[in-house]
Amino acid sequence: MVPKALIGALTGLALAGFAASQAFAEEEQPYMVVSHEIPEYLPGAVPGDVAAGRKTAITKSKGNCLACHTMPIPEQSDHGLTGPGLTGVGSRMTEGELRLRIVNPKIVNSETMMPAFYKSKGLHRVLKKFEGKTILTAQEVEDIVAYLVTLKDE
Ligand code: HEC
Fold first, then answer.
1. Residue with CA closest to ligand 1 atom 8
2. Residue whose CA is closest, atom 39 of ligand 1?
3. What angle is formed at CA 49 by the lines to CA 48 and CA 54, rounded to 5 degrees?
4. Are 34 and 44 in contact (CB under 8 A)?
5. How far apart, in whole angstroms, are the C-alpha atoms of residue 151 and residue 72?
6. What pTM did the predictor assign?
7. Do 145 and 48 contact (CB within 8 A), yes or no?
8. Domain 27-149 CATH superfamily
């Protein structure tokens, strides 16, 4: 016999787990592109959190930016060289340009290898779990943007 209270607790945990897995991704919401920028926060998101953005950027199952970019992240030794280094990127690019690059870099370079982190429509060869879902949530994108803005040249 499993006590009722325990069943309740386990159900609660399962539901919490479900909610957490839902938070991984969402459907793309409309945003406005002005020239090579997305000037406004993504729909439903609030100003990004720098520390959260740094973490999301270097987490392999999230941004995984270090796979292709060098960054001022001394605690991890493997930094990819496919893309340009991101140290100082906050001095080179505006917040709106950075947002667009992360949302969907194909808007500025259709040939780029960089993934579109906030795109759920018109994707090809996508893993089942990402069908109809963005890789990052709007808020995770904003957090990474807030972090990149801080990467100024010395
Ligand atoms: C699969 C490789 C890959 C991954 C993963 C990747 N990028 Fe990129 N990124 C590139 C390449 C290649 C470019 C060069 C420009 C192009 O291809 O359009 C680039 C360009 C950029 C630029 C423009 C920099 C400049 O100086 O012009 C920014 C900003 C950027 N990436 C941020 C990120 C961030 C933040 C992440 C993680 C959320 C990320 N990238 C993940 C490959 C990648």
1. 114
2. 65
3. 110
4. no
5. 8
6. 0.86
7. yes
8. Cytochrome c-like domain (1.10.760.10)
| Residue pointed to by tokens 């040939």 | 111
Residues with CB under 6 A from ligand 1: 57, 63-65, 67-69, 82-84, 86, 89, 92, 98, 101-102, 105, 109, 112-115, 117, 144, 148
Q: What digits encode the pLDDT tens for the residues 16-69?
A: 444 444 455 688 999 999 999 999 999 999 999 999 999 999 999 999 999 999
Ligand 1: atom nearest CA of 82 is 12
Residue 129 CA, ligand 1 centroid: distance in Å? 23
Sign, CA torsion 97/72/136/105: positive
